[in-house]
Design goal:
The chain has 40 helices and 10 strands. With 937 residues, the protein is mostly helical. The chain folds into 6 domains: 110 residues, no CATH class; 138 residues, Beta Polymerase, domain 2 (2-Layer Sandwich); 149 residues, Four Helix Bundle (Hemerythrin (Met), subunit A) (Up-down Bundle); 85 residues, no CATH class; 214 residues, Beta Polymerase, domain 2, CATH 3.30.460; 143 residues, Four Helix Bundle (Hemerythrin (Met), subunit A) (Up-down Bundle). α35 runs antiparallel to α36. The protein is elongated and about 115 Å long. It comes from Sulfitobacter geojensis. GO terms for molecular function: [glutamate-ammonia-ligase] adenylyltransferase activity; [glutamine synthetase]-adenylyl-L-tyrosine phosphorylase activity; ATP binding. Keywords: ATP-binding, Magnesium, Multifunctional enzyme, Nucleotide-binding, Nucleotidyltransferase, Transferase. Its EC number is 2.7.7.89.
């Protein structure tokens, strides 16, 4: 592979100044012809490059044999300069890096990323060398308490954070470098804190002077330390704890955006990494942060106003960085999208502009053609920016004001002036139109809102509208402002509802319960299509509306995930949650993270059912997949946390055995989870940990820890209620049972009803090998002879006891009562038990009852139809309300949903339909349990 500069040249600047070209050629007579032509063109356009050549020609003639290796050698040499010679050594290195990167850039030998990468790598090396040189005297003089020369390796706990373009590895040709200097105060005793801070401040000032002072050898990098917290009153090097407190309490959106690109570049890189990690909650919000759009828009307008850069695009003097259609527009566009979604997706937290545009397109946050267009313009803008700065090493971004200046720029670009001007105007205009369209959805503060007169089609109750601003969501001035922009559209959508006043009252109830409004209102402002979904949900389902008002962030899933994609299934869900939990910094954060994650998927299932995208059968399976995925991902997390105190689980560990609807894989929106914990200690009597426990006690406490993890009302609420009453001996028995005890109990002591329950049991979490043994043991128990007469008699008595103890909840109670869910499930389990096998699906149990002669074919079809109808009512009803279903309190939308779920037109039809199905099923079950066994045929 050829590495010479001559072999990589793809373009050459045109000669702009003949005398400079001749002077340059005289300095490199021994260079290859292609390189001589490139150098002549470059030096003729840029006096600064000619000045570099005059000092570094001898080095250059050797370096062109392998430019990349030559530049890397210069970067590596920064660490070898003696402290007394660091200043001159770094300046000589900067000249060489600047000269070679300019030639490789102008000659098309290096892509933009190689050019900016080389400049950034040298800046990193220079900062590290200057920092060591600044700290060395402080350590030698004993000014840094407890530190010796050995501590220079990690700068005694001080770190330099590269910000902006340096942090993103995107330094421009004549860039300032933005740095934040911090130190780890935990490495010093309290009494030494002030001395340490003073020493670090002095070292920082020395580092800055080494880099930025102009000497006879030039300068290295102009250094800006003003991005630190509150720079007017804080020292140039701050304690990390003080900086963290500032960002947590006072940090602003522009500082969040700045930290997207932040990275440790010199000093204690590990401490710097830990500091940035602590700022993740500040930088990356857990919810979709559409409020950041308005902040970014306000920043754009403020920059334009401050710099006087508003108005139309006219090329002379146009600022390629801050002007309309410039570099900053593309960066704001990219970073704002990152801030919106990066809290949910770590892949969106990269530093580079082009790489992040590509990821945003891949994740469907930006259309692919937009990302590709902006990337192309970004590279072109940066190329022009570099040429403007190469002329005199000036930190300028302004296009030339004169014809001569444009002629020089065109020569550097190897273009004709008219072609250059047309290309610049086109690119700036396209960037402006694209990015302005993104921010156009938010209006500047103070912009008057023209409220559409939706009352032309419907006049809403003014008293309802007037009380909105007394609600908590409107306490924030900003939230109220955003809502005023939303209000006309929301009222128009409400007016289109079948019963607008009813829809308004439902929406009013939602707003009244909403604790804060800025984020939700910003999300609706940026995504108007969500308003229809919101109105649909709150108008139809009071339960979902209440859930939404407390957890508006679940809307994030609609925008930021595959909300309408195919259902992923239990295994994929479990893996996804495990990935989420692996990123959380603490056990408590893992529990809260599980709640947030589960809530979004729970909401997705409900919305799909509500909107007819799925049916009750599918929703039941999905609710179960979700619960089992949560148990499967959370159980090892709880176990690991418990093991930190009491050691690893003794023996083979423990599994969670799902019972009832969980074991059967069919839940509704409010289902409890029926669980048993079964463990196998082998011959290990106690755990092996800091605080050992007897195995039985260990697993009992581990079970309680899991129950707490699931049910504790943390900041993100509860996950599920847990019911363990199906364990051996019920509530009087231990919460965790050994495998041997469970097997012995089931084979020798268990009641018929416990074997009935076992027909729907399945392992949902825990070690696979132990889970397989538990499943096989359950199958063995069910295969034991179960005399049909005894089972039928027991079930008949159980029906009587249930009828006596549980009052029927009326026609809308799908669960309790003859011929309803519980009745059919009990009968189906009896058929499976008599058949000697599991039957997780009730339909399979009904089939087994027919095969065992309990019912005939007509009875089987009757029970299946009744069970399906009851499930549809149960699943739809629990989505509308977690309590007993009150059809009189349902609005029109809720009533229509309920009727649709049952395949009927009205609630009256539903009631008649359910009555007929349940009476028929009750008759079948009553006859089967009353008749001599085996006579159904």
């Amino acid at each position: 592979m050829t590495t010479t500069l001559a072999s990589q040249i793809t373009r050459t600047p045109r000669i702009f100044h003949q005398d400079r070209a001749r002077d340059a050629l005289a300095l490199i007579e021994d260079a290859p012809p292609e390189v001589r032509e490139l150098v002549a063109g470059a030096a003729s356009c840029a006096p600064y490059l000619l000045g570099l050549l005059e000092k570094e020609a001898a080095w250059l003639v050797q370096a062109v044999a392998d430019p990349q290796a030559a530049v890397q050698a210069v970067i590596d040499s920064a660490a070898t300069h003696p402290y007394a010679q660091v200043s001159d050594g770094l300046r000589a290195g900067k000249r060489r890096v600047a000269l070679m990167t300019a030639l490789c850039d102008l000659g098309g030998a290096w892509a933009l990323e190689q050019v900016t990468g080389a400049l950034t790598d040298y800046a990193d090396a220079a900062c590290a060398a200057a920092l060591r040189a600044g700290l060395a005297p402080q350590i030698e003089r004993g000014k840094l308490p407890g530190m010796t020369a050995d501590d220079l390796a990690d700068a005694g706990g001080m770190v330099v954070l590269a910000m902006g373009k340096m942090g993103a590895h995107e330094l421009n040709y004549s860039s300032d470098i933005d740095l934040i200097c911090l130190f780890d105060e935990t490495r010093f005793d309290n009494g030494d804190f002030h001395n340490a801070r003073t020493a670090f401040v002095r070292a920082t000032r020395s580092m800055s002077a080494t880099l930025s002072d102009l000497t006879g050898e030039g300068y290295v990098f102009r250094t800006d330390l003003r991005l630190r917290p509150d720079p007017g009153v804080t020292p140039v090097c701050m304690a990390m704890e003080a900086a963290e407190r500032y960002y947590e309490s006072l940090g602003r959106t522009w500082e969040r955006a700045a930290y997207i690109k932040a990275r440790p570049c010199a000093g204690d890189l590990d401490a710097g990494g830990r500091f940035i990690k602590t700022l993740r909650p500040f930088i990356w919000r857990r919810h979709l942060d559409f409020a950041a759009i308005q902040d970014a828009h306000d920043m754009r307008l403020a920059i334009r106003e401050h710099k006087g850069l508003g108005g139309p695009i006219t090329l002379p003097g146009h600022n390629m960085k801050l002007g309309r259609g410039g570099i900053r527009e593309i960066e704001f566009f990219t970073q704002t999208r990152q801030l919106i979604a990066g809290g949910r997706d770590p892949e969106l937290r990269g530093r580079g502009t082009c790489e992040n545009l590509a990821i945003l397109a891949q994740k469907n946050w930006v259309p692919t053609d937009v990302a590709e267009t902006l990337t192309d313009h970004y590279r072109a803008h940066r190329t022009v920016e570099h040429r403007l700065q190469m002329v005199r090493d000036a930190q300028t971004h302004d296009l030339p004001q004169s014809d001569t200046g444009f002629a020089r720029l065109a020569a550097m670009m190897d273009m004709e002036v008219p072609d250059l001007e047309a290309d610049l105007h086109r690119r700036l205009s396209e960037v402006h139109e694209t990015t302005e369209g993104f921010f156009a959805g938010t209006q500047a503060k103070g912009t008057p809102v023209q409220e559409t007169e939706v009352h032309e089609t419907h006049r809403f109750d003014a008293q309802v509208l007037d009380r909105w601003h007394s609600y908590p969501a409107f306490r924030s001035e900003r939230g109220a402002e955003i809502f005023e922009r939303l209000k006309p559209d929301l009222l128009a959508r409400l007016a289109r509802a079948a019963k607008p006043d009813e829809a308004l009252l439902a929406f009013d109830g939602f707003l009244e319960r909403l604790p804060a409004g800025v984020q939700l209102f910003s999300l609706l402002n940026a995504n108007p299509q969500l308003a229809d979904l919101l109105i649909d949900v709150v108008s139809t389902s009071p339960a979902l509306a209440k859930h939404l008002s407390r957890n508006a962030a679940v809307f994030d899933a609609v925008i930021g995930g595959d909300f309408f994609s195919d259902w992923p299934g239990e295994a994929e869900l479990r893996d996804a949650l495990s990935t989420v939990l692996a990123r959380e910094p603490s056990y408590e954060a893992q529990l809260d993270g599980t709640r947030r994650w589960a809530r979004e998927w729970h909401f997705r299932i409900g919305v799909h059912l509500l909107r007819g995208l799925t049916n009750a059968e599918t929703a039941g399976l999905q609710y179960a997949d979700l619960a089992r995925a949560v148990l499967g991902a959370l159980w090892p997390v709880v176990t690991d946390e418990f093991a930190t105190r009491y050691g690893p689980p003794p023996g083979r560990g423990a599994v969670l055995l799902g019972m009832g609807s969980l074991g059967a894989g069919r839940l509704n929106a409010t289902s409890d989870l029926d669980l048993l914990v079964i463990y196998d200690p082998l011959d290990q009597d106690t755990s092996d940990g800091k605080r050992s426990l007897p195995s039985r006690t260990y697993y009992a406490r581990l079970t309680q820890a899991m129950i707490t993890a699931m049910t504790a009302p943390m900041s993100q609420g509860k996950l599920y209620e847990i019911d363990m009453r199906l364990r051996p001996s019920g509530n009087q028995g231990p919460v965790a049972t050994s495998l041997a005890s469970f097997e012995s109990y089931q084979k020798t002591q268990a009641w018929v009803w416990e074997h009935l329950a076992l027909t729907r049991a399945s392992v949902v979490a825990g070690p696979p090998a132990l889970g397989g043994d538990v499943d096989r043991m359950c199958a063995q128990v069910l295969a034991l002879p179960s005399p049909p007469e005894q089972v039928v008699a027991e079930v008949a008595q159980m029906r009587v006891r249930i009828a006596a103890s549980k009052a029927v909840g009326g026609p809308w109670d799908a669960k309790i009562g003859p011929g309803r869910l519980q009745d059919i499930e009990l009968f189906a389990q009896s058929g499976a038990l008599i058949a000697g096998r599991a039957a997780h699906r009730i339909a399979d149990g009904i089939t087994a009852a027919k095969a065992e002669g309990l019912i005939d074919d007509h009875g089987m079809q009757t029970l299946r139809a009744a069970y399906d109808a009851c499930w549809q009512l149960q699943c739809a009803g629990k989505l509308l309300s977690p309590d007993a279903l009150d059809t009189k309190a349902l609005g029109q939308a809720g009533a229509a949903f309920l009727a649709r779920a049952l395949g009927c037109d009205t609630l009256a039809e539903v009631e008649a339909h359910m009555e007929q199905k349940c009476q028929a099923a009750a008759g079948v079950i009553g006859a089967a349990l009353a008749a001599p066994q085996g006579t159904a045929e």
